[in-house]
Amino acid sequence: MTPLARAEQLFAALAEMSADPPGVTRASFGPGENAAHAIIRREAVSLGFETCTDEIGHLYVTLPGSDRTLPVLMTGSHLDSVPHGGNFDGAAGVLAGLVLLERLAGGGPPPCDVTLMAIRAEEMIWFPEHYLGSRAAFGLLPRDTPDRLRRSDSDRTLANHMTEAGFDAQAIREGRPQLDPARIGAFLETHIEQGPVLVEAGCPVGIVRAIRGNIRHRYCRIDGETTHAGGVPRQSRRDAVLAGVELVSALEAHWLEVEESGKDMVLTLGEFSTDPTTHGITKVPGRLTFTIDVRSQDDAVLDRFEQDLQTRAAEIAQKRGVHIDLGHHTQAVAAPMSTEIQQSLRAAAQSCGVPHMDLASGGGHDCATFASQGIPSGMLFIRNRNGSHNPDEHMDFEDFAAACDVLFAWARDYLSRLRTDLPAPD
Asked: Does the keyword Metal-binding apply (predicted)?
């Protein structure tokens, strides 16, 4: 069986195993994610690769190099999904990595170890902490994370879910790193694009310039007063929804100003809702909950947005007689990709005859964690119709094959240059 045929079968196996109509569900540290890791491990063992799992639950599949003291060439992505999501988000990068190892194995031992990392818990929808798995791998999470975070579907702690899956939450509590940045020569993540840029440009692959940083407020709340819809005049109301609408309008105006200045930013307000068990058509709503997600390639843009958000929230709360609580927020800094890796990926795509273009990543990815640790990092996007985080995401297998060709050409060039850097034998 060819490596690509094997990958096609594994995509089908992952979809069948985690089917949750209308899509797939592989919850972080849940049965779906666990089963996905088991599928990849089983296939890797059958191919003769080394496998191991760390204290957090990350799976490593390694093609041993001739000099195992050299820093590792690493690739990989995640295997969890959003609820009822698509089958390719994350999994495409893991299976592209498996294809890479199998192709490289056909040419004899590489000069250094080449490792595929199947990462845990990338999708923030399950636990409200960005890049949870990859940050845990480097010992970067706050020590209280296992006991503070609760999974969205079960309301049980991260520690509980990790223990149930057979892993050690104490590693996070003690900040024990599983990876040493000095031991990683480069990291490259292959991933489906989560927007329409490659589709509209007619390009099967994209080379990522930078991963947008983000600020996320997961638990925003406006408390006003629930009163009679007919008996209370406008000036006497403390309407939580109208206060929220005014805040949304102010934030969109800020967004427009940023765009007009030529800077990069995207803003999303989600889960904008009242509680239907207490609010109704004859009541002035006294409570509103919502989320805020703002992203930019420029950390200064994010900082200015956060300042404006706090200022406008305070002004609107005073004006309307409500209390606005924006809650705890997380912040991930923007992550520029290695210029050298971008150039090498362009050369690899050209050598393979694969049309390509440069673009920014709107979504966050574990690759940003590797870049933040000073590891030369890059991302290769695969064209994907119908967006992502939904059951309709669509990656043509021909595009996946093209991305695998580019990844192999890039890795082969990286390894050949490494060979020329090795000292001559005595």
From this structure: yes
